[in-house]
Write a structure and sequence with these properties.
9-stranded mixed beta sheet; 15% strand; single chain; globular; alpha/beta
C-alpha cells in the first residue's frame, strides 16, 4: 500500500493507518490536516493490485474514515453495492421467523426490516438483534463498539437505499410514506462525501388532502414530487439540548394520535450512534384533512430534517437554505459558532432556536446576522408547550411563503454538486419514450376511441358472441348450425380487427417494451406515472363538473348520465395499452399474417415482466372477457422461463366492492397491485410471487400466483339487468383457477353478506362437479376486541349454517341433490379458516399511519394458508389416482 501527496500547499494527513480486515476488505483511517479549511479540497484514494488500478474514490479531507464497506459487510450487503437488491428478491415468500420482532444476527436484520416495511408495519424501525442479549451468537464486527452491538435504524435505512435498485427504492419510499415515516430526500455517501437527491425514489408517492382555502372543500390528490409546497427545514449547529426529531414529531402529530414520523433517540435502539446516516436529509409532510378543529395547519407543508451538524454538511445545508421557506436552526453554543454564523448567507428565513441561557450569551451575535425570528426555550418549559410555540411560528411563516416542488428542486441540486438519481441515460431515454406517447393526451375517452380502438365495440361484441357460444341461450332448432353461425360472426369480427392498421402509438409502446431489461422497466414505470397523473387531472375536472351539476336543481338527468359515462370511461393506465396488445395479438394470431411476426415475441416479453412483479390483466374489466390465446401464450412463455422450477399455486381474493381487497393482498404479500387512479379494481389481475428455496418443499410450489378481482355487487353495474350474472361469471372463473380462495368480509357479522356468499357457494359447487375441491378462508375486517376469535364462535357457527343452507339451495338449482353441506364441496375449518383483522388506519387520514395491528394480523395470513395448500395438493393427488 502506497500513499502519495502531490500538492505543496496542502499538508498530508496525520496518523495514516491501513488495516486489512479480510481478504476482500480494506479500511483506511487518518487524521485530517491541521490549520486548513477541510471544505476547500478533497483526497483521491486509489487501490492498486499487482500494479494495476482496481478501485478509486474521492473523499473530502474532513472524512477521516471509510466506513460504508465495513458496515455493509456486517449486514451481509457488501455485494449489493454493485449487484443491487431488487423487488423480486425482497418479496420472495420466506418462512416466518420464530420471533417476529427479533433478528438472530446482524445479517438477518435487514430482511426483518424489509419484510415488515413491505407489509406497511409502522413498527418496522423498532427492530432488535438477538446479539444484543447473547454475545456468543453475535458475529464479529469491526464497525460496532463492543458495548453497543447493533445498528442504528437510520444507518440500516441508508445502507438499504444504497444497496437497492431504483425500483426497490421507489417501493421502499412508498411504503415508508404509507407508514407515515420520513423518507430520504438527500441520501449521503460517507465514503465519497457526496449526496443524491432521491427524486425518482419519491415519484410513486401520491397524497390526498383538503386545503381550507378551497371553498367547496374538494379533495386534492397529486404526486408529491410535482406538488408545489412550502418547505420548512430543521437543522443543528454544534450542540443542542433539544431533540429536533422529537419536536418535529409533536409538531406533525394530531392531538388525538401521536406518531413518530422522524426516528429519535428515545425509541428503541436509538442510543446506538449513527455511522453512515450523518448528512441524511429526511422529508415528511403535514396534510390537512379539512377539519378546522383538528388540523394544525390549514395548508399542506413539507418538512425536512438534516441529520448531523451543518458545519460538516454545508452542501446539504446550502441546498435547504435555497429551497426552503424557512430554516429553523437549533444551537445552544452561539459564542463558539459565532464566526460560522456570521458567515452564513441564507436566502430563506432563518429562525434561531436555543435555550434562554445560550440566548443571553449571543445577544450581540444575533444583532449582527439578524435572524427572522428567535425561539427561546426556558428549561422549565415542557416539550408540548414548546412545540406549540414552534407551530405558531410556522403558521406565521406559511402566511407568506414561496412554494417549490421536489422536481423543481432537482434543477437546483446539480449546481451544488448534488447527484439527481433519475439523471441517468437509461432512465431519461425511457422517459422520452413514455412522454412521446402520453404528452398529447388531452381527452382520455376520445384518445381511447382513436388510439386504443381494438378494445372498444368490436371486442365487446366478440365477447358477447363467445359467451353465447358457451350458453346457447338463443339457440335455434339446429344447434350445430347456430354454433356455426356464431363462429362465422366471431371470425368476421376478428378479421375486421386485424384489418385495421396498427396505430403509431402502439408501435411506440411495443418499441418501449422491446428495449433492454433496465430501460424496459423504466419505460413501464414512466408510463404508469404519466398515465396516473393524467387520469387524476382528468377525473378531478369531471368530478368538479359533476358536483356543480348536482347542485343545480334545474340540471337535466341526461347531462348527469353523460357525465357518469364519461367518468366511467376516463381511467387510463398501462393495462389499457397491454389490453390493446392482447387484442392485436389475438387478431393477428388467428390470421397468421405478416403482423403476427412482429407480435409473436410479445408473450415472452410480458412473461419476463411478470417475473419482475408486474401485474397482468387476466379478465378484461370492461368487456368481462379473457383473451384466451394471449393469456395462454403468456403463461406458456412463463412456464418456459421458469422451468424446471415452475410449480405454481393460485390464491384469489373475493369480496364486495370497496372493502379493501387490494389493500389486504398488498399487506399480506408486500406487493403493490396496479389499480387505475381514482377507481376500484376492474376485472382481475394476476401477479407472481416467488417462494424461497427452503420454503418450496413445504408448500410444494416454486411460485404463488395471486389474483386480485373486482368487487362483487358493484354500484356501477347494479343498474344493469345482468349484474348478478356478471358476478357469478367472475367468481366461477377465478375460483376455478384457484387452489385457495380468500373471501373478504368487511364486518364481524357475515349475515348481511348472504347474497355475495351465495355467489361464492355456486362457484365452489361447480368446482366440486369437475373434480376440484378448493380451500376457502374468510377474512373479517374492521373487527375489534382482544378476544375476537374466541368471542365470535357463535357467529362462525351461524355463518356455517348459512353456508350449508346456501349450498343446499345451490345444489337444487344445479340439479345435483339437496343434501350437500358446505364442507362437502371444499376444505373449510370453522376455527382455522377465519381471520379477524382490525381497522386499517390508526386515526383519520391523511395523517394517519396504517395500524400496526392491521399489518401484523394480515401478514400472518399467508403462513396460515400453508395447511390449505397442502390439503389441496393431497386432494388433487387422490383425485388423480
Amino acid at each position: 500500500m502506497y500513499c502519495y501527496f502531490f500538492h505543496e500547499a496542502i499538508p498530508a494527513p496525520d496518523n495514516f493507518e491501513y488495516i486489512s480486515e479480510d481478504a476482500t476488505t480494506v479500511r483506511l483511517n487518518w487524521t485530517s490536516p491541521r490549520k486548513i479549511d477541510p471544505s476547500l479540497y478533497k483526497f483521491q484514494v486509489i487501490m492498486y493490485e499487482n500494479g494495476e488500478k482496481t478501485e478509486s474514490m474521492t473523499v473530502k479531507s474532513n472524512v477521516n474514515s471509510i466506513t460504508m464497506e465495513s458496515l455493509l459487510r456486517d449486514l451481509g450487503l457488501q455485494n449489493h453495492l454493485k449487484n443491487k437488491l431488487n423487488l423480486k428478491s425482497v418479496l420472495e415468500l420466506r418462512k416466518p421467523s420464530d420471533v417476529v420482532e427479533t433478528a438472530h444476527s446482524l445479517r438477518s436484520l435487514q430482511w426483518l426490516f424489509l419484510r415488515k416495511l413491505m407489509m406497511v408495519n409502522s413498527s418496522a424501525r423498532i427492530i432488535k438483534c438477538a446479539s444484543n442479549c447473547n454475545p456468543e451468537t453475535c458475529e464479529k464486527s469491526t464497525n460496532i463498539d463492543e458495548d453497543q452491538k447493533g445498528i442504528h435504524p437510520l444507518d440500516l435505512i441508508t445502507a438499504l437505499f444504497h444497496c437497492a435498485d431504483p425500483f426497490l427504492q421507489q417501493e421502499m419510499a412508498l411504503k415508508m410514506s404509507v407508514c407515515q415515516f420520513s423518507v430520504p430526500l438527500l441520501l449521503p455517501n460517507c465514503d465519497t462525501n457526496e449526496c443524491t437527491l432521491m427524486l425518482w425514489a419519491l415519484r410513486d408517492i401520491t397524497k390526498q388532502f383538503r386545503s381550507h382555502s378551497l371553498e367547496d372543500d374538494s379533495l386534492e390528490e397529486s404526486s408529491i414530487v410535482l406538488t408545489d409546497l412550502p418547505l420548512i427545514s430543521f437543522v443543528r449547529l454544534g450542540k443542542s439540548s433539544m431533540s429536533k426529531s422529537e419536536l418535529l414529531n409533536k409538531l406533525l402529530s394530531n392531538r388525538q394520535h401521536h406518531h413518530d414520523t422522524f426516528f429519535h433517540k428515545e425509541l428503541e435502539n436509538g442510543n446506538i450512534p449513527r455511522k453512515i446516516s450523518n448528512g441524511l436529509v429526511e422529508m415528511s409532510w403535514y396534510l390537512p384533512g379539512g377539519e378546522k378543529s383538528n388540523d394544525k395547519f390549514k395548508e399542506p407543508v413539507a418538512v425536512a430534517n438534516l441529520r448531523g451538524d451543518i458545519s460538516d454538511f454545508m452542501v446539504q445545508f446550502t441546498f435547504l437554505s435555497q429551497t426552503s421557506s424557512a430554516v429553523f436552526l437549533f444551537c445552544d453554543d452561539l459564542e463558539s459558532n459565532q464566526t460560522f454564523l456570521e458567515s452564513l448567507r441564507i436566502r430563506s428565513k432563518l429562525v434561531l432556536v436555543c435555550t434562554t441561557d445560550s440566548a443571553n450569551l449571543g445577544d450581540n451575535l444575533t444583532q449582527k446576522f439578524k435572524p427572522y425570528s428567535e425561539i427561546l426555550r426556558d428549561r422549565n418549559m415542557n416539550e408540548f408547550k414548546f412545540a406549540e410555540t414552534l407551530q405558531e411560528t410556522v403558521v406565521d411563516i406559511l402566511a407568506d411563503s414561496a412554494k417549490m416542488s421536489i422536481e423543481k428542486m432537482s434543477k437546483i441540486a446539480p449546481d451544488l454538486g448534488i447527484i439527481v438519481d433519475e439523471n441517468n441515460t437509461i432512465c431519461q431515454n425511457a422517459k422520452k419514450r413514455a412522454d412521446l406517447i402520453t404528452q398529447d393526451i388531452t381527452n382520455i375517452p376520445e384518445y381511447k376511441m382513436k388510439e386504443l380502438s381494438l378494445q372498444d365495440k368490436i371486442w365487446k361484441e366478440i365477447s358477447k358472441l363467445e359467451k353465447e357460444m358457451c350458453r346457447l341461450k338463443a339457440k335455434k332448432q339446429n344447434i350445430e348450425h347456430y354454433k356455426s353461425e356464431l363462429k362465422c360472426q366471431i371470425q368476421k369480427l376478428k378479421r375486421q380487427q386485424g384489418s385495421n392498421d396498427i396505430r403509431e402509438t402502439i408501435y411506440q409502446f411495443i418499441s418501449g417494451l422491446s428495449c433492454s431489461p433496465d430501460e424496459q422497466l423504466y419505460f413501464v414505470k414512466w408510463m404508469k406515472i404519466n398515465l396516473d397523473n393524467l387520469t387524476r387531472k382528468h377525473l378531478s375536472r369531471l368530478d368538479e363538473q359533476y358536483r356543480d351539476a348536482c347542485k343545480n336543481v334545474t340540471e337535466d338527468n341526461e347531462h348527469l348520465r353523460d357525465l357518469e359515462k364519461e367518468i366511467a370511461s376516463s381511467s387510463l393506465g398501462v393495462q389499457h395499452f397491454m389490453r390493446e396488445l392482447s387484442q392485436l395479438y389475438e387478431s393477428t394470431h388467428s390470421q397468421k399474417n405478416s403482423k403476427y411476426t412482429a407480435m409473436k415475441k410479445l408473450p415472452e416479453i410480458c412473461a419476463q415482466l411478470m417475473l419482475t412483479g408486474f401485474p397482468l390483466e387476466l379478465i378484461d374489466g370492461d368487456a368481462s372477457n379473457i383473451p384466451l390465446t394471449w393469456i395462454r401464450d403468456v403463461l406458456m412463455a412463463l412456464n418456459k422461463l421458469t422451468s424446471p422450477h415452475n410449480r405454481i399455486r393460485v390464491v384469489t381474493v373475493l369480496g364486495v366492492q370497496s372493502t379493501g381487497k387490494s389493500t389486504l393482498l398488498n399487506t399480506m404479500f408486500g406487493v403493490q397491485f396496479a389499480v387505475s387512479s381514482g377507481r376500484c379494481t376492474r376485472g382481475a389481475f394476476m401477479l407472481l410471487i416467488s417462494v424461497s428455496e427452503e420454503f418450496r418443499s413445504e408448500l410444494q410450489c416454486d411460485y404463488i400466483l395471486v389474483i386480485d378481482t373486482e368487487g362483487l355487487k358493484s354500484l356501477e353495474l347494479s343498474k344493469l339487468a345482468d349484474s348478478y350474472e356478471h358476478d357469478n361469471e367472475l367468481t366461477t372463473v377465478v375460483v376455478g383457477l384457484s387452489d385457495l380462495t380468500i373471501v373478504n368480509i368487511a364486518m364481524e357479522n357475515a349475515i348481511e353478506m348472504k347474497d355475495t356468499l351465495q355467489i361464492v357457494v355456486h362457484a365452489f359447487l361447480r368446482m366440486k362437479e369437475v373434480g376440484k375441491r378448493p380451500c376457502c378462508h374468510f377474512v373479517h375486517q374492521n373487527t375489534a376486541g382482544v378476544a375476537v376469535h374466541r368471542n365470535t364462535l357463535k357467529e362462525r357457527k351461524i355463518l356455517l349454517q348459512q353456508l350449508d343452507e346456501m349450498t343446499q339451495a345451490a345444489a337444487r338449482m344445479e340439479k345435483i341433490g339437496d343434501n350437500k353441506k358446505f364442507t362437502d364441496i371444499l376444505d373449510y375449518n370453522i376455527d382455522k379458516n377465519n381471520w379477524y383483522i382490525p381497522a386499517l388506519w390508526l386515526g383519520v387520514p391523511p395523517m394517519a399511519p396504517v395500524s400496526t395491528s392491521y399489518s401484523e394480523e394480515a401478514s400472518k395470513i399467508p403462513f396460515g394458508l400453508r395447511s390449505g395448500l397442502k390439503n389441496q395438493i393431497s386432494y388433487n393427488c387422490h383425485a388423480k389416482e
